[in-house]
Write a structure and sequence with these properties.
Helices cover about 35% and strands about 20% of the residues. This is ATPase AAA-type core domain-containing protein.
């Protein structure tokens, strides 16, 4: 490839690995005669995957004497090529971290393939879900002033006012997560948000990884009332303690502002390559979180056929099911998920389609030797909820976190074990993380032994009053707890609550056991005399 060709105006480059690159130049392409080419024209250049890095690096060097926009274009090309390669492997959330958020002083929510979040009312379960929702909003590009207005007006599902987000109003709250399968292992993310002049602003944010002293980037400055700008130091992967800085807005998540390689100095090629790849992975992982709290009353109407991303309330259920049913393999999985849960046998899924491209789901049910077709308005609440759960699991992005509140609503206790088994199977097959809340003892009793350790209990500390999260498998006395019966029974008998709030140490319990044995021995000897 000649130098003339390396500086040609192209609108997209596609390498043989199949990674599509976004637009790399900010000005229109021109023909040899100098006339602007149509903006839709795309030049395609095939690059062998092995030589792509060398080619892009060489192009950057050749462009040193070129105009700044040309150099920026090559920096963008270089970064985009490897960003797509990095993020072709889906990153996954493995924990959510909270500090000074609502009822939590400090807590961590570990996420497994299937995690049940349990706890009494007012223990703090909903606050954890609201923390995840805030991260999801930030990943969608929401500005903090917009989030503040939504919360203050009561339009948002986050309860209370903006100042209620902070347990201690004088200290910023922090939310974060740990990710796996991140580019170069940069898997620890944290953002801190505080109140400045009654407005939510970013006060700190960083991405780090184990064994690395220097973070990938971090906020290096304090917010003030005179400007929305905040200074961010980024890792240039060079020796020295002084790191380069760039300005960002403190009204939006920093990771959302660092996906463009051109934001970093031209000589910092590793920064141009790695930082956008990591921030893109964080953004996509957090924005792909699926929230589901189905409302059967809203699921009985027609839905526009193209509205195929499941809404939180499930109101577009018919459209999502219609899209799933266009692929026979997906339709088979959906039928397998739902047919064993209702009392009747569901043999097929059909749809009513109007001239306006609206659709309504209808199920073919079998009772003995008879079958009938039932339209959505006549389906039971439980059947609609199961359909929505199946739709969410089958359409969520691979590796996504799916959150389903009160999973057992409308499901008969006798079907609880089947529901749990089906959930586990789809989550495992599609590499999902599924977070479920439930108060139903029958459903918790149906948990297999392999899932019991991953249950996370939420409770209030009796002395400090803050909410706590603990994975049952991490309890010192977990084997003793598991031996006392099914989880649902342990909750209703308040056995679990006693174990969670037990502040005794192993030494204390050993001493109590020895005292009891001594008393038993003495009473036995006394009886013998």
């Amino acid at each position: 490839m000649t130098e003339r060709r390396t500086t040609a105006r192209t609108s997209s480059v596609v390498c043989t690995l199949g990674y599509s690159l976004k637009q790399v130049l900010r000005e229109p392409a021109h023909s040899r005669g100098g006339e602007p080419l149509p903006s839709s024209l795309s030049a395609r250049v095939s690059i062998h995957g092995i030589s792509a890095k060398y080619w892009a690096s060489k192009a950057l060097k050749q462009s040193r004497s070129s105009a700044p926009e040309t150099l920026c274009a090559w920096a963008t090309l270089y970064g985009e090529l490897f960003n797509d390669a990095y993020t072709s492997i889906r990153s996954m959330l493995i924990s959510i971290e909270l500090k000074n958020f609502k009822s939590y002083e400090r807590a961590s929510l570990p996420l497994s393939a299937m995690t049940f979040l349990i706890g009494a009312n007012a223990s703090g379960k909903s606050n954890v879900l609201e923390a995840i929702r805030l991260l999801n909003w930030l990943a969608k590009g929401s500005r903090l002033d917009d989030i503040t207005r939504s919360i203050q007006s009561g339009d948002a599902v986050v309860r209370g006012q903006a100042n209620d987000l902070l347990r201690d109003p004088l200290v910023s709250f922090s939310l974060g997560g740990r990710f796996e399968s991140m580019p170069q292992g940069w898997g620890k993310f944290e953002i801190s948000i505080g109140l400045v002049a009654d407005q939510l602003v970013v006060t700190a944010e960083s991405v780090a990884k184990p064994g690395e002293a220097v973070p990938l980037y971090q906020v290096d400055g304090l917010p003030n009332t005179h400007t929305d700008e905040i200074s961010v130091a980024y890792n240039n992967f060079k020796r020295g303690r002084n790191k380069p800085h760039i300005p960002c807005s403190n009204r939006q998540a920093i990771f959302y502002q660092l996906e463009t390689p051109g934001r970093f100095e031209s000589g910092h090629q590793d920064s141009q390559r790695v930082i956008p790849a990591v921030t893109k992975a964080i953004r996509e992982t957090l924005r792909n979180v699926v929230f589901l709290d189905p409302r059967p009353a809203l699921m009985r109407d027609y839905a526009y056929v193209k509205d195929d991303l499941i809404k939180e309330d499930g109101s577009n259920l018919s459209a999502v099911l219609y899209q799933i049913s266009q692929t026979s393999a997906q339709k088979t999985k959906l039928l397998a998920f739902i047919k064993s849960l209702p009392e009747q046998d569901i043999t097929d899924i059909d749809f009513i389609k109007t001239d306006r491209n609206d659709v309504m789901v209808r199920l073919v049910e079998s009772f003995g030797q008879k079958s009938r077709t039932v339209d959505a308005p006549l389906l039971s609440d439980g059947t609609l909820r199961v359909l929505a759960i199946g739709a969410a699991l089958l359409t969520a992005p691979v590796g996504a976190l799916v959150i389903i509140e009160e999973i057992d609503n409308g499901v008969h206790p006798s079907r609880a074990e089947t529901l749990v088994r089906q959930l586990q199977a789809i989550a495992s097959e599609r590499g999902l993380r599924v977070l479920l809340t439930s108060h139903n003892p029958a459903l918790l009793d149906a948990l297999p032994d392999s899932a019991l350790a991953d249950v996370v209990a939420c409770y209030r500390d009796p002395e400090e009053g803050d909410s706590r999260l603990v994975r049952l498998g991490d309890l010192d006395r977990y084997p003793e707890l598991a031996a006392q019966g099914p989880l649902g029974q342990l909750m209703t008998r308040r056995v679990l609550d006693r174990f969670l709030k037990d502040s005794t140490t192993p030494e204390d319990r050993k001493s109590e056991a020895l005292d009891w044995l001594n008393e038993l021995r003495q009473s036995t000897q006394g009886g013998g005399e």
